[in-house]
Here is the input.
Amino acid sequence: MEQVFGGLDNSKQEKILNTKLTIYICEGEEWEIKKWFETINIAGVPLNNQELLNAIYSGPFVTKAKEMYSNSINPQMQKWSSYIKGDPKCQEILRTALSWVARGEKNIDGYMSLHRQDTSIQELQSYFDTVIDWAKGVFGSPYSEMRGLPWGELYEKYHNNPYNTQDVRFRVNALLADDHVKNNQGIFEYILGGEQDKSLLNIRIFEESTKRAKFVQQTEAAKVAGHSNCPYCAMSDNANKTRIWKLSDMDADHVTAWSKGGATDISNCEMLCKTHNRMKGNR
Ligand SMILES: [Zn+2]
Here is the structure.
């Protein structure tokens, strides 16, 4: 339970007042001070990376930035927490804001060093607001799945593209309801990128047992008919027309694409040779 000094009994007050503190005053170049912090950080409760940077680059910029982003009673914190994961008291919101304006976590150090003596955090603040407002503008009211996405990066990559919020939300809702999609967090970038990169969604794939059963079925029928067990090869005019592929030379394909509602079970599975599977996938 939290207590105040005045409320403690005398012996406890005495104990606090008589406790000897070890205070290091370090002087030197920035890199020397940095080394010091790393050394003293080994004892006690270690500071996290951002706390360490705040200490190293202490000054007007950090003070102002912390007032804004490390203050858990900032009324905007709730709005931000729809997009950002983390605890303001652990400097995690500040870290995100800095990583956005600095274009990546690895540049935070340099950014803080450059702006250490600034008395204004205007650039930091306006970039942060721009990113959040953009995300809100594209997707409308926030989805819980979008919390913690790399919004700064997504903004840099996609903010020049036009989006219609109503269409976007229609697609987000459809993909969230689609049980082939195994990575719901990937839906947002998938849509921003014009629904090209399916790897973002981690689409459910056919079971090995399904592939094998379909392979046996196709291969037996192909041998009887005297053509290739890849239906596309069978239709061709080249040497592969009668070629019987091994299971390891084939891949499973959705006859009706999952994006058009095709199921991921044997009724919608077709084994194709690797070349034809790749060609079909690229259409
Ligand atoms: Zn083929």
Notes: The mean pLDDT is 92. Residues 161-204 form one domain.
